[in-house]
Design brief:
The chain is built from four helices and no strands. By secondary structure, it is mostly helical. The N and C termini lie far apart (42 Å).
Length: 107
């Protein structure tokens, strides 16, 4: 699972952007973002809902709306990266399984 990682990543991104927020503030932001994601389950991949929640919370707690946009983009990029890695691994596994099947058929 992702128990603490999203909050830690949000904290690291905000610190990299020069916003020295407390981990308690980031925990509040993350709780709100997860609540919005759960409430917007009907939106595919929560597109827009998660980003809006991050934008609002970073603006509210840190007073930096641009940092909210940057944090939301980094968070979404992380999800896209993991999705791409998963799809690549699945395809490689399928190709390997097909190769094994054709070698077995030849014997």
């Amino acid at each position: 699972g992702e128990q603490g990682w999203p909050g830690l990543i949000m904290w690291l991104v905000l610190h990299a952007l020069g916003l020295h927020t407390s981990f308690a503030d980031v925990w509040i932001m993350e709780a709100f973002v997860q609540t919005v994601r759960a409430a917007s389950f009907f939106i595919p991949a929560g597109l827009g809902a998660q980003e809006a929640a991050i934008y609002v919370m970073v603006d509210w707690l840190a007073g930096a709306p641009a940092a909210g946009v940057a944090t939301a983009l980094v968070r979404r990029a992380r999800e896209v990266l993991w999705l791409a890695v998963s799809l690549l691994a699945g395809n490689l596994r399928a190709v390997h399984a097909r190769t094994l099947d054709t070698t077995t058929l030849r014997d």
